[in-house]
Amino acid sequence: MRSRNQNENHQNNNPPTKPKHADLSETVLQAKKLSVYYGETLALQEVSMDILKNSVTALIGPSGCGKSTLIRCFNRLNDLIDGCRVEGKVIYRGKDLYGSKIDPVAVRRRIGMVFQKPNPFPKSIYENIAYGARINGFKGDMDELVERSLQRAALWNEVKDKLKTSGLSLSGGQQQRLCIARAIALKPEVVLMDEPASSLDPISTESVEELIHQLKHDYTIVIVTHNMQQATRISDFTAFFNAKAGKNGKRFGYLVEYDKTEAIFESPQEESTKQYVSGRFG
After folding, report:
1. ABC transporter domain spans which residues (predicted)?
2. Domains of the chain by residue range
3. What was the pLDDT predicted at 24?
């Protein structure tokens, strides 16, 4: 058996790419030796992993291990942070999203994002859906798009008679489902979710989790969560990240283990994964 230090070195030098027990499902996104720096400070080191189509992939690990940093790389939101530098590649449908000819705005249309706290626009429920579609050049039937998006977000029946009221008037759980409807209105293929239920009550959390189960039939979902029970409930695959101090004393994140969710929680291969999922640290 390896010592813990040897084990961590092994993980860092040979990061898993595909879930070991996955079938041959189509790969939608690939991170290839992806590292992220804020200024000169390393935040995430050489992550390589494949995200599989029509699946829910959960990213778990202690605070500061780079989970949110990673998903922001997947749709180039880190471009908006001063001093952020990304090395390596993110491949989507055969194209490197960090290539010189790639338009980040176009990337975000194909790879949507739902944030930790619900953030509806200060507009009507209808305009929360229509506004993004309109500025992105949608020319079809807007009423149909709004209704379809709200239906897919399991919100239509609750708001169909008050579409002109402010999105901010909704409950927290409804607001988060409105934000999900807004994201899928642009017809992305991938939806990134950064702890989408962390600020919600248990009933609203259950509604969002049920929605995620429904959405994976049409979308590929990557979700950051600190709630390990949530990861077991909603995800097909789980990637465990950890953090350690670099030579400058500052901590950076790295991928430890990536597999089917039941394998990560029931028979993890790495000692640090076992300790984390059993609640011994984190």
Report:
1. 29-268
2. 4-277
3. 56
Residues in the chain, pLDDT under 50: 1-12
The amino acid sitting at 194 is D
| Dist CA 216 CA 270 (whole Å) | 28
Residues 239/277, Cβ–Cβ less than 8 Å: no
Q: Take residue 120 and report the two structure tokens written for it.
A: 């509806």
Q: Parallel, antiparallel, or unpaired: how do β-strands 190-194 and 111-114 relate? A: parallel
Paired tokens of 143: 């009423």
Choose the CATH number for 4-277 among 1.10.150.530, 3.40.50.1100, 3.40.50.300, 3.40.50.2300.
3.40.50.300
**Within 13 A of 219's CA, how many CA atoms are on the CB side?**
27
Q: Minimal CA–CA distance to 173: which of 133, 142, 210, 207?
A: 207
Backbone angles phi, psi at 125, to 5 degrees: -55, -45
pLDDT in tens, 198-249: 888 898 899 899 999 999 999 999 999 999 999 999 999 999 999 998 877 8
Residue type for position 110: R
Contact between residue 126 and residue 164 where contact means Cβ atoms under 8 Å apart: yes
Q: Per residue in 190-212, is it b (16+ CB within 10 Å) or e — as a string?
A: bbbbbbbbebbeeebbebbbebb
Which pLDDT score, from 0 to 100, does residue 249 have? 81
Q: Which residue has the tokens 């709630």?
A: 227
